[in-house]
UniProtKB/TrEMBL annotation:
It comes from the Bacteria. GO terms for molecular function: cystathionine gamma-lyase activity; pyridoxal phosphate binding. Its EC number is 4.4.1.1. Keywords: Lyase, Pyridoxal phosphate. GO terms for cellular component: cytoplasm. InterPro entries: Cys/Met-Metab_PyrdxlP-dep_enz (IPR000277), PyrdxlP-dep_Trfase (IPR015424), PyrdxlP-dep_Trfase_major (IPR015421), PyrdxlP-dep_Trfase_small (IPR015422). One of its GO terms (biological process) is transsulfuration. This is Cystathionine gamma-lyase. Its cofactor is pyridoxal 5'-phosphate. Belongs to the trans-sulfuration enzymes family. It is an enzyme of class 4 (lyase). The modification N6-(pyridoxal phosphate)lysine is found at K185.
Length: 348
């Protein structure tokens, strides 16, 4: 991906991808798709989608947020009378979107816990949407096995790959029909933009999705897309340190009498790493908050940024203890971060 632009440079070309801030173009008789009107496409958005397509090995479309990607995909792929299966212990906003926005259009929702999805009945389901690892429980779902079950009954499988990113996991290669990623998280990595994308090798689905985006006006601005491109170019380096820091923290958290439970995704051949998220349960909410403050972890509901952060997920209605923290490990120097972690555990 890094050489996708540099390999095609002409003498005098700028090395970084130029930021093209425009919504209007001087039209030819037959304008190019990304040279007609900014609601359809812009050069910067198209350039970033091309880079994402290299990572996903599939066509990609950008959206102004991860939830924007969810909404557009469901609008493009579902119709009145369809049933969609989502995780009961996955990202709550996906369930809220289905219940609040799609239900009045005759789309119904069923839910199932991540650890039960392997045997959940799929008859009559039009679409199955899962996260793996799940958020915040970090349960791992066998994508290939679930894809086989979905396709046997004519259901589409959509995988939210936000936690792993396409560098650690390739759901399309395992049989998923589409992938959603919140690029707000690790893909962008700097905690300064909202963005999401959908990838699929189903040409018909991508055509409908592009029509949905164009007609609904759900395309990101060029500047935000350019910020994502900046993040993509360091994704490999950032992920390596983030995962390293998460693994280094596991024995420290597990050995502390302040932490009653530690969860980390189980190893699975479908992923090249177990990731940078760790779940840790403290005695109560005040103890968890005190730990975050003393460790220097940012108290944020997002994750995947340069800076280590934590979120007490019970506040959002997740079925976890009040003192449960979803910890997202950042790119800080490992030795210093582990020292801060150990000191915070002693004092929390």
């Amino acid at each position: 991906m890094l050489h996708a632009r540099s390999g095609a440079l002409e003498p005098g070309d700028p090395v970084p991808e130029p930021l093209v801030m425009t919504s209007a173009f001087a039209l030819s008789e037959q304008p190019a798709p990304d040279r007609s009107y900014g609601r359809m496409a812009t050069p910067t958005v198209s350039a970033v989608e091309a880079r994402l397509a290299l990572l996903e090995d599939a066509p990609c479309l950008l959206f102004p947020s991860g939830m924007g990607a969810y909404g557009a995909l469901m609008m493009a792929a579902l119709k009145t009378g369809d049933r969609v299966l989502l995780l009961s212990d996955g990202y709550y906003a996906a369930r809220a979107l289905t219940e609040t926005v799609l239900a009045p259009f005759g789309i119904t929702m069923q839910t199932c816990a991540a650890h039960d999805i392997a045997t959940a009945p799929l008859d009559g389901i039009a679409m199955v949407i899962v996260e793996t690892p799940s958020n915040p429980g970090l349960d791992v779902i066998d994508i290939a096995a679930l894809a086989e079950r979905c396709h046997a009954v004519g259901a589409r499988l959509v995988v939210d790959n936000t936690v792993c990113t396409p560098l650690l996991q390739q759901p399309l290669d395992l049989g998923a029909d589409a992938v959603i990623v919140s690029d707000t998280k690790a893909m962008g990595g700097h905690s300064d933009l909202l963005m999401g994308h959908v990838a699929s090798r189903d040409a018909g689905l991508m055509e409908r999705l592009h029509a949905t985006r164009s007609l609904a006006g759900a395309i990101p601005g060029p500047f935000e897309a350019w910020l994502l491109l900046r993040g993509l170019e360091t994704l490999d380096l950032r992920l390596a340190r983030m995962c390293e820091n998460a693994r280094a923290a596991l024995p420290i958290l597990s050995a502390s009498d302040k932490v009653s439970d530690v969860i980390y995704p189980a190893p699975h051949p479908q992923t090249s790493d177990q990731g940078f998220l760790v779940g840790a349960t403290f005695a109560d909410a005040p103890t968890a908050d005190r730990f975050l403050e003393m460790a220097g972890f940012a108290p944020t509901t997002s994750f995947g940024g340069l800076h280590s952060s934590g979120d007490r997920r019970a506040r959002w209605g997740d079925a976890v203890p009040a003192g449960f923290l979803r910890l997202s490990f950042g790119t800080e120097p490992t030795d210093r971060l582990m020292a801060d972690l150990a000191r915070a555990l002693d004092r929390a």
